[in-house]
Amino acid sequence: MESSPFPEEVLERKVCVVGSELVENYTVYIIDVTDGEHKWTVKHRYSDFHDLHEKLTAEKKVDRRLLPPKKMIGKNSKSLVERRQKELELYLQTLLQQFPQATPTPLAFFLHFHLYEINGITAALAEELFNKGEQLLQAGEVFSLHPLQLYSVTQQLRLAKPTCFNGDAKTDLGHILDFTCRLRYLKVSGTRGPVGTSNIEESSLPFDLSVFKSLLQIEISECSSQQIQGLSCLRSSLATLSIHHSTETMTSILVPEASEFSQWEAEGAESGCPVTAVIPVWRNLTTLDMSHNGISSIDSSVKLIPKVEFLDLSNNQLSTVENLQHLYNLVHVDLSYNSLKVLEAAHTRLGNIKTLNLAGNQLDQLTGLTKLYSLVNLDLSHNQLAQLEEIRNIGSLPCLEKLNLSSNPMCIIPDYRTKVLAQFGDRAAEVCLDGKVTTEKELDTVEVLKAIQKAKEVKERKSSGDKKVQQPAVSLSEQTQCGDPPSNATTTTTSSISVCCVCSSSSSTPESTLCLTCSSTCCPLLPAHLLSLSSSNKDFITHLSHLLSSALKEQKTKNMEEEAETEEEREEERVEERVEEREDESSETREIQSNVEGTEVEIHSPGSRDGYFEMGLDDSVEESVCSSSTSLTGPSAEESIPPQGEPCEEEEEEEAEEAEVKVSRVLWCYCLQVKEEVEQKKACLVLSDHLFCLLYLKDDFTWANQDADQEQGSPVEEVLSGLEVDLLLPYSQLLLSSHAELPDSCLTLGCQASPSRWYIFSEYEELRRTRSELTGLIQAAGSDLEPPNSPQLLPRSLINSWELEESQGAKGGYPAHLLPSPYSSSSPTDRHHLLSDILSKNEKPSLPTLLFLTHRHLWVLKMDFRELAERERESKADLHQPSSSCCSLLRVPLGSVVHHPRERASQVMVRNSYTSCQDPKHQHRSSHCVEVLLGGEMLLLLFPLARDRSSFLGELSQQRASLEGLKMVALPQPCMSCPHQEQNTPGHYRSRDQCCCFSNIKSQSTGSWDSSHPQLEENQPSPHLLPGLSPGLKLLSGLQGQQLLAYFHRYIAMSKAEEVRQVLWLSVVLYKSPDSELTCCLLLSTDTIYFLLEDSASTLGHNSVLDTMDSGDPDVSLCCCLSIRLSDLLSVNVGLFDQYFRVVGRSADHIVCCLSRDSYGTGLFLQELMSALSLQQQLPPPEPSDQDFYSQFTNTNTGKMQNYELVHSSRVKFIYPSEEEMGDLTFIVAERKTSASAASSSSRSFNVLLYLLVFQVQVPSSLPSQGSTQSGHSPPSPVLQPRTLILTSTDVFLLDEDYVSYPLPDFAKEPPSRERYQLREARRIRDLDRVLLGYQTYPQALTLVFDDLPGPDLLCHLTMDHFTAGGEEASPRGGGASGGAEGEVQWCVFVPGADSRERLISLLARQWEALCSRELPVELTG
To answer: What is the pLDDT of residue 1202?
Structure first.
């Protein structure tokens, strides 16, 4: 056995006080405790030492003078702290020496022995089980232990010591053993890294589970399989086993004996070979959950679990499914989020299962699922299924009821649901697809599709197969004639001058009736329906193979004709040269000329004697081209037929080979071809067994019937007629380039015989597979490849070192054109500098940029493709070295990227009435476009690939939902005559269904609006909040009832299922900006808390948004929004007297203090928040394979109150003011008394009677008060200064308070920069002369008029530095109070809440009457 991390004997223990720190107004001492090799840190204040000493003196008779005494004055001074630090260290060391063996319980808890020391851990656990063990066993709840506790028990059992060596019967080890023998449900949760403040690593602590004799269910997480011992002892009793983040093999858990016996066999199994051990089976195990591990294969250890019914192997690394045929009782199997690519003959391994989860794999075929006849639930979401034909493999399963195909490539196919349901025939009504019940409308559409399919089959039977093959072959040679439908749309498209940006075609529709999508500049866009024509479409592949064979034959014929013409020219040149030589050699010119003429005539004849040298030079050339061309002299038909027997046989063989061109991959893509200029094309990249082909889709290509195309996909013949070959060459002539500047979402190609370069863009995974396959084909052809770069989604040369972590989670690489909107209200000179860089006008035509999304930014990668191609052609630089001149990366804060509300609303509503654009092709073009608002500009994003648009929007929505900081939301102006009047302004289209004010949302919240949440109708901010309302907040404040609900669901909510619970107008303070108080509209939903803030929030230095609030659209207002999900909520701190509350999330961005200044509003919010949190628990039960079995044994629906903390059932803490917090406030108030008054009031109570958050009204003195009205100047508006008003029995105080920084959050590393309370004003109640009520200074404000009498000064202890800044002189007595008549001081205080205002007046009057023996004068002013 390895040496244990803990010593088996009690080693020397050391205690050292290493330092101190100041927390709030007291000092905390830092203590390092050493026990053998292990150390940990403890922090205590002096009062803790004092409490410890009191217990030890009472229980152990410790000398009372041993502890250093208290100090009342200067207790936080540096000298005192250093001296006391040494004295306390000596005190602790003396105690340890006095009790070397059995440490007293108070001292053990003080030094955290119960957390880190083996004896203390077991003693604490034994005492806990002594008190609660029987109740836990009777309740049948799950009991949780840590590996450190189990290790301590294991080590204690091995030590030769009594089970109770300290004399306390409650800590006897027998209590633990008795409990473990009867425990039925156990959970062991480990940790990664050191435990607490110690250096103990739990992952290195072995523990033994053999002490548990009656376990039925166990869950182990974050533990290594090597440290788990005794698990095999549970084979006879265990029914459910869950292992997470703990193992890489199933054998190490199910057969731990395999480490000792390599040849083993399960009990009762017949083995044909000798074995060294027979392993007992798990007799009662029915549920095995080994999800979230590193398992790469299902090994033979499953033979030991024959009774398992529920098997969960999700989130592992499985690439194959094996050995499951041994599990005859399997009912539910979860193999989601593995690496499965193929699942063949699943019925031979999975048997009669009912639930199968294959989500998150890489499946692109379903042929292996055809015989799972008992399957009821099937989840295939997040796979690579692209072809609807694959659904036929599961369409005949008789019991299938629930099918999930979401997030697959086929989901972008138009009418995807109805086409999938049509594969199930008469059972379409019984199938629930993607969690949605089939509607009657979908069933009607399914019946229509079935009728169309039958008609198509009848038509195919009547048509001949030869005609189908010949038609596309002719279309390539006659590209301008075949396949073009006789439609006027084609001629209109080519003849018009105004070209649409989305389909590369023009429109005859007047510009005034076209939307922004249909009136921008030109760029080619690939129709989404072409994606169905891939390598899995057999009909398309067959036709494409014939087309390539015909093109190859035509290309060879053309090349041979050119070679023949070249040879004829060479022969003529040679004859002329020979004639000139003979003219020089002979003197008889005419005879030589006649002989030369005779030789010239017979030059190509094999029997010619004078032409022997020409024939000798021509033999090799003629043999190389004779397979498909005639002789060079062009003989007659009669002469050429006999000698061509052999060449004809060669032609037939080559034609047969050409007919067998095998297409292995088809990739529809967007292509940039760089010659002298950059051309943009819609392309089809084809890989065959020996040829590479790149085909372009014609610019004037249109569908013959768009409606039919929407329903049935792209006709093969029609698509092939629009293709023309650009590249057709063997792989040996192809160049595959690799640039350090280019990301993996771009494929760069070149040709050895051409200076052109091609840049290919397509879906990332498809492009990656194509690159990998193309690399192998080029290497097989014998070509040398450039050394490839390491895989990178983004060029490393453009990323800063602090952005590497952010770049690792980047998604995308979407090519898109970024175009400014002509309807934007901002001018180019007023643009944000970041937008000026993005919208550069140097490129004509506009070239695409690449868009990447991270959890913080939208990264825009701009590339100069001309320069990239020029560098590659001229080889001026190493292509693997970065060059900043070719590429630039611009970073846009993600919070400022806002989806235009017009498009966002269309996603919530029915899309058929989305726009009034009169272009008939608008619906197709809009599938490539996204309108966004960014930094004061309305932009149009054109995606050449329609799939990129949906992927970009989905990723943008997901990243914005998880954004921790501020983000912008766009709110459109409501229609004036809504919902019956339409608006047809340029770039602004609204119909009755599209209108932002008309609610047509099918939500649960609409039905319960009036009955359950009447407070939502009270959407009116308080008067003091009106000056801080930005345009977006003013818009919200004007909405009522259904309008507000519609705005929330369409433009604010992050999910469709949210229900609004409360609307609250208040002021908030952010933790990162504690000095700024912001006006806010708080929306509480059943899922999230939304804080809609005023515009000044964007200028507080948060990097998640740009510092501009201009939307670029005059009809849209931007509003800053901060959202906190209820699932991320940790605690809620309630302020004194319910005047405010602080919401605490998981980071500093999610700490917000809400200043309601109204106890009723705070109480109402807390009530609704608890109700919403309770709804989080009432979720529908999961499927059996996904259900956490501990949930049925643990009751989490009741909250409990402990130490002023209400722990909700959702684990959210509601922390209320404690007596200590109230005592601190009382102490601060009492400390302000002078020594003179302290003596007289020493016996008087300083209890706080009232605590209110108010405003002190101050009138600026910038304008002269005399004659201001005569000179035409209006008096300055009053300024509201937030203050905290505290009323005691004798005095009234005004303070500045830091609401958001206290109490300190758990992740705070240092105290706040300012104190919690700072006193501004203080007066005695007896000095109050009268109270003025009225509207003179501020509406509904109170003016407290005090007599400025000489007497004890309540502020004398405060230095001038509290009231001055930058060396200014201190303000006179009274601080910010305004002076009235001579000898008077006036406080003008505005209390927002009416109840709070009445309470303040009532208490003031009562205390004043008690002190002055008469009623308080209250005067009303005008």
So the answer is: 58
Which amino acid is it at 622? E
Separation of alpha carbons 1283 and 1293, rounded Å: 10
pLDDT at site 1261 = 62
Pick from 130, 147, 316, 313: which is nearest to 227 by CA?
147
Asked if 862 and 888 touch (Cβ cutoff 8 Å), the reply is yes
Total H helices, total E strands in the chain: 36, 54
Give the residue ranges of the chain where pLDDT is below 50. 1-10, 466-513, 587-648, 658, 705-713, 843, 876-880, 882, 909-916, 977-994, 996, 998-1012, 1014, 1179, 1181-1198, 1234-1243, 1262-1271, 1356-1374
Provide the 8-state DSSP code for 407: T
- The three-state secondary structure class of 1152 is strand
Q: Which residues contact 276 (CB under 8 A, 6 or more apart)?
A: 261, 262, 263, 264
Give 1019-1028 pLDDT, tens digit per residue.
788 888 888 8
Q: Which among 1161, 1143, 825 has a CA at the least distance from the CA of 987?
A: 825
The token pair at 1250 is 């009232």
Residue 612: the pLDDT is 36
Question: Which pair of tokens denotes residue 1248?
Answer: 């706080």
| Cβ atoms of residues 217 and 1189 within 8 Å | yes
Residue listed under structure tokens 């983004």 = 794
Choose among 605, 592, 612: nearest CA to 635.
Answer: 605
Q: What is the pLDDT of residues 1216-1262, one digit of tens each?
A: 888 777 777 887 777 765 443 443 444 355 678 889 999 998 877 64
Interior CA angle at 950 toward 948 and 951, to 5°? 60
First to last CA, the chain: 91
Q: For residue 1284, give the nearest of 1332, 1365, 1245, 1228 by alpha carbon.
A: 1228
The 10 Å Cβ neighbour count of residue 93 is: 15
44 residue type, one letter: H
User: Rounded distance, CA 568 to CA 772, Å?
Assistant: 45
Contact 420, 394 (CB under 8 A): no
Residue 436, class by beta-carbon neighbours within 10 Å (0-12 exposed, 13-18 middle, 19+ buried)? exposed
Computed on alpha carbons and rounded to an integer, the radius of gyration of the chain in Å comes to 42
Predicted pLDDT at 488? 39
The one-letter amino acid at 843: E
Q: How far apart are CA 1154 and CA 1064, in angstroms?
A: 10
Residue 1184's alpha-carbon distances to 207, 289, 298, 1188, in angstroms, are 31, 11, 21, 8
Cβ(748)–Cβ(770) below 8 Å: no
The span from the CA of 1256 to the CA of 1388, in Å, is 6
Q: Compute the distance between CA of residue 1017 and CA of residue 1346 in angstroms, rounded to an integer.
A: 42
What predicted TM-score, i.e. pTM, was given to this entire model?
0.56
With left for phi above 0 and alpha for psi between -120 and 50, is residue 713 left, alpha or beta?
Answer: left
Per DSSP, which regions of 269-367 are E strands? 277-279, 287-289, 310-312, 332-334, 355-357
Number of neighbours of residue 1353 by Cβ within 10 angstroms: 14
Tokens of 93: 């060391």
Which helix H or strand E contains 1324, and what residues bound it?
Answer: strand 1317-1324
What are the residues whose beta carbons fall under 8 Å from the beta carbon of 559, sequence distance 6 or more?
Answer: none
Contacts of 228 (CB under 8 A, 6+ apart): 206, 207, 209, 220, 246, 253, 256
Quote the tokens at residue 638: 């009669």
Cα separation of 931 and 1276, whole Å?
44
Type of residue found at 1102: H
Q: Where are the alpha helices (DSSP H) in 487-611?
A: 488-495, 538-585, 589-601
Torsion of CA 709, 714, 717, 721, to 10 degrees: 100
For residue range 789-815, list pLDDT tens digits in order.
555 677 777 777 777 778 778 888 889
Q: What's the pLDDT tens digit per position in 268-286?
A: 666 666 666 788 888 889 9
